[in-house]
Amino acid sequence: MKIATFNINNVNKRLQNLIAWLAKAQPDVVCLQELKAEQRAFPASALRDLGYRGVWLGERSWNGVAILARDCEPVMTRSGLPGNPQDGQARYIEAAVNGVLITSIYLPNGNPQPGPKFDYKLAWFERLNKHAAELLNTGVPVVLAGDYNVVPTVQDIYPTRSLDNNALIQPQSRQAYARLIAQGWTDALRKVQPEGPLWTFWDYERNRWALDKGMRLDHFLLSPTVCDRLVHGGVDRWVRGEENASDHAPAWIVLDL
User: Which residues make up the annotated site Transition state stabilizer (predicted)?
Assistant: First the structure.
């Protein structure tokens, strides 16, 4: 099973980019983030023509997450992160695909920090950690995929001091991610490539794509019941270089199930 995660940064604006990548990469499961489309505007018909069926949680202009599966119907198990019934932002969806529970996560960015947006990020992270622990305790195969909006370590970002105040690299953000890993999850991309750059995001500003000044924001965390099935993984960097590209590139893993 080839599972990909891709912050598409507006699914309708970049639909042709998405279609071209799907045709070439042919993932079995795709976790999308930042749809920027309300529920009824999701391009389900165009994706179905390619053999992908999906579940999604839309939100007008912002956020939005989806899970697509090739030649099968994902079974939605949760359409929101538990812990705060008043939180209406479309940032978490969960579905079962061929015996594996898969999430699409779009964790809050948190900028500017300090401030209410950073507080929301940390509170959301704590809710995620609590729910992840509950999923872990079920013993089922789980893949926590998505855009975590956190750079886990210094090797996950190009050398710079210009982002020292950015919410993505703050100690609190990294500590929350580390606490999540410590529950027993495996960072799949770092298991495949323990050292060196694994950029999944290059900002549109300051020519950062051309200069390869990137960072790793998109992650797969594997439960112990599935981590030994990891075969391969990587980042489809070429997608970031296409015309009208998202500022993220798709990351992917292959599990031998």
Answer: 149
Tell me if 247 is assigned to a ligand binding site.
yes
pTM: 0.98
71 is in an annotated binding site: no
9 annotated among ligand-binding-site residues: no
**119 among known catalytic residues:** no
Q: Residues 86-124: pLDDT tens digits?
A: 999 999 999 999 999 999 999 999 999 999 999 999 999
**Residues 175-207: tens digit of each pLDDT:** 999 999 999 999 999 999 999 999 999 999 999
Q: Is 248 annotated in the active site?
A: yes
Domain that holds residue 162: 2-255
The tokens 């580390």 sit on which residue? 178
Is 219 noted as a catalytic residue in this protein? no
Catalytic residue (choose from 92, 106, 148, 177): 106
Question: Known binder of ligand: residue 248?
Answer: yes
Tally of structural domains, the chain: 1
Average pLDDT value for the chain = 98
